[in-house]
Amino acid sequence: MLGQMQQAPLLLTDILRHALRNSADQEIVTRLVEGGMHRYTFADAGKRIAQLAHALTDMGIGMGDRVGVIGWNTHRQLELYYALAGIGAVCHTINPRLGPENAGYVMAHAGDKAVFYDATFAPLAAGLAPHLKSVEHYVEMCPEGQVTEVPIETQSYEALIAGKAEEYDWPTFDENTACAMCYTSGTTGKPKGVLYSHRSLVLQCIVSALPNSLGCEQGDVCLPVVPMFHVNAWGVPYTALLLGMKLVMPGPGLDGPSLHELIVKEEVTYALGVPTVWQGLLAHVEGNNLDFGKLKYSLIGGSALSEQLIRGYDKYGVKCRQGWGMTEMSPLGTINVEPEGFYDLPIEERVKRQIKQGPAVPFVDMRIVDKEGTKLAHDGEAEGHLQVRGPWIIDTYYGFEENALTKDGWFDTGDVAVIHPDGVMQITDRAKDVIKSGGEWISSIDIENAALNHPAVMQAAALGMHHPKWDERPLLVIQLKPGQEADFKEVQEFVNKQLPKISAVDDVQVVDEIPLGATGKVLKTKLREHFKDYTLPTAA
Amino acid sequence: MLGQMQQAPLLLTDILRHALRNSADQEIVTRLVEGGMHRYTFADAGKRIAQLAHALTDMGIGMGDRVGVIGWNTHRQLELYYALAGIGAVCHTINPRLGPENAGYVMAHAGDKAVFYDATFAPLAAGLAPHLKSVEHYVEMCPEGQVTEVPIETQSYEALIAGKAEEYDWPTFDENTACAMCYTSGTTGKPKGVLYSHRSLVLQCIVSALPNSLGCEQGDVCLPVVPMFHVNAWGVPYTALLLGMKLVMPGPGLDGPSLHELIVKEEVTYALGVPTVWQGLLAHVEGNNLDFGKLKYSLIGGSALSEQLIRGYDKYGVKCRQGWGMTEMSPLGTINVEPEGFYDLPIEERVKRQIKQGPAVPFVDMRIVDKEGTKLAHDGEAEGHLQVRGPWIIDTYYGFEENALTKDGWFDTGDVAVIHPDGVMQITDRAKDVIKSGGEWISSIDIENAALNHPAVMQAAALGMHHPKWDERPLLVIQLKPGQEADFKEVQEFVNKQLPKISAVDDVQVVDEIPLGATGKVLKTKLREHFKDYTLPTAA
Ligand SMILES: Nc1ncnc2c1ncn2[C@@H]1O[C@H](COP(=O)(O)OP(=O)(O)OP(=O)(O)O)[C@@H](O)[C@H]1O
Ligand SMILES: Nc1ncnc2c1ncn2[C@@H]1O[C@H](COP(=O)(O)OP(=O)(O)OP(=O)(O)O)[C@@H](O)[C@H]1O
Ligand SMILES: [Mg+2]
Ligand SMILES: [Mg+2]
Description:
Chains A, B: Keywords: Fatty acid metabolism, Ligase, Lipid metabolism. Two copies of one chain form a homodimer. By secondary structure, chain A is α/β, with parallel strands linked by helices.
């Protein structure tokens, strides 16, 4: 027997409508690509989103069309998010740091019909244009008359929307309609496309807005440092409107000084981003004797949050919350919201929990399995392949015939994890990066965390290197902080003291720069190439 | 084009699973019907819910079967909520205060296959049994060996579940499957059945858990005084598990002293109920020089929250939040969460907002229309019939052929309201109770609020009485506080001073007791009967 309630689809338009109705006067502040700041209200945004929807419709863009966006976090990209979704089109955000080859690949693969780009990326767009058959329109997200001179036919965003009607009669359609698209960051191969639906993003938005998920509160001012091309800036452009929070968009200014200025001036209380960004910001604040203004929380995810970062921010009263997710998960999987009374504990106790990835949010199911796919216990001991399922988790990659799931319907994350009895999940590694020593698995994250605790270490990466007896043994690669020197032996001792014997690193090597991928993650593939002729001293 | 995310149904089982995984040690405390207190953890509840599901299955109850429940808010009823929904059956909660005739009517109408009742309601159940053809099983929610002697075949709940397996392999099914059922309180006619789906209750649960809806926070201890037979206790049995909040169940103790004891001993921070309950509790605390312990919020809905109640609780530092909803809305429509900085305002300013019903929660759409169905402005001036739509709003009453909606898909609430430009909605009356004076509408809620401000007034009801010139003019009926006396003329002056001239009451009458309906609302139908031969002095 079915219930007899209304069949109202869950659409992103409902979030916009709610924001306009209940928080019309709330502010969105943007550091502009063209220089200066831009401020307006949700109500103003609503009008421009309607104008943009009219412009898109006039360009012949409609249901199911993919539109590429290569840009910084700005109010204009926010407008694209809502206008495209609102008319049933698909906002395909492109990570410019992927490099022209990969960017061109994903745009061709997605079959983008139009491309919106920031001035910064005009050369990238223009360079790709000759190879992109599907693209009919190019638009630079800039003021009228300020289009960067490039050898393609293009127009300015502001001219495009100027004069259009400020209301749009948003259509209603199936909540499973596609609305956004993002390719994985390609750290482990060619990027693969994930096609989000209204339903999946609305649900992940509501759930991430719960007090025991992101934990945003009334009056929070939200700064998504995480790019809008990195899994929809983790959904913040939706969550902020749902909760009526002031939204601060950093534009191209992702360096320490720019972010710091924004946090202090705009009274940011809740910021989100990957560890490398938080590292840069912390160094700036420490180096210049500054503070973090009203910042209360930084949500950190995308790669592991280190003890060193937690301690660094703790000194300033900023609480680091770790989140774990994936492009394939929209991205929300776990958030390590502190249990009640957590901040009464001493920091030594707290870091132990904070370096874990956290408990799953509602409606996300997690399990760990062994090589054969047998379910392992959630006892904090067993380590296995982490698999997930839920309403905002991928079924099938874009353009693939077969789904991406196990026979019994779970998605294998490619991560290796332990699940504790209280539901808290802890990633020990990517399956590809796990160091296999004498039949046991060594966590490279544990080693890297230990290394980052060293005052001279800026970046760290542990690699499993061939060993004749143990199969693999860990090599620690470090990048030093500018102007710092370090004694390899001393670093090795410092690190090994913190680790169980089996995880003790066999050697330490320094490189000038540990290569980072398009989303600020260590590129172990590149690093492995660099060390392909290296032999561990213990293996000689 | 459809998105390519997993098609995971939204089921109440997911909320239970989440609670067991992330908050296994959280507590549920119940004042037992059989006397004494009962405490256990979410983990314990999970086991008993599984046991109950096995027992129900063994009784032949399955997908689509309706099971009647006549009981107080207890852990056993909570178990029924989840076990019935989990196996795809329908939990039909019955309001015992409806009286035997109405209770029998709704049970027969629903076609309940089994009935679970508390000892208090054994006579009611036994009395109805001969008339209920569909019921195959009676279960008293009591310990083994303590079944009340009644002339029907019955068994004890504890014996029923004893020894069953403590795990249940919950099935997966369409999220639109029915899971719960509630009849309207019948203040305006025969009760009508509303059949909730998993989808509708899950969505209303997540949305009510948002920080700008109920506004519960980590560490809150939740007391649903609102009965579980009154629109699922406004969803609290779901929300508490979703957020991992300690849940305190008042059982049959809804009087001031019992509630007060529970609030203080169990350190309740967030309580929910109808105004009459809050009135009783306040009188008890005031009369005995007590305080409210750790209580921070009382969410008040079901009928209008009065200024007098807001002020009464404000003195004790307890914040009154008004909610508005209906059985047909699962019930959540609006919650008047205070904007930022609200509590910096003086009380005079605050009450003006707090007596309003509040802004709509996300995904609920509201509009006001005139008699002809033309949409009216949300300008804080225009007053019209309030209509709603959204994913947890009724489509069709149980057993009806035609849907309950307007031609363009809205549900008419039967309420008359104003919507302010900031989205805040204010009920002025039920359409049936509106006082029509010379072509204008007078709000009976305004008059009642003004009357309740009088120190001697306990309950108030405004009725539109026939008037030869104006069509109708307001009569104010009051019930005095115990031991209080009042001069009619003085009350009339006191009230009229607070009202616009057109709303000034033409007369005041005192009754011993204003009749309340099954959910603590003034029964105007009864009151009108009482005054059917009365003539206004101004009409003579
Ligand atoms: N808090 C975290 N701690 C550790 N690892 C994390 C955390 N958050 C995310 N990750 C890692 O990032 C991955 C998801 O990243 P994303 O979807 O951006 O692309 P990618 O996996 O880096 O790229 P590709 O799949 O193309 O190789 C996770 O599978 C996990 O390995
Ligand atoms: N905060 C509130 N302020 C004023 N009225 C309220 C409030 N909350 C609920 N109500 C009234 O209660 C009604 C919903 O109550 P409910 O669904 O319990 O049954 P009922 O309408 O009283 O019964 P029936 O529909 O059978 O007559 C609303 O339509 C509204 O009139
Ligand atoms: Mg990946
Ligand atoms: Mg009603």
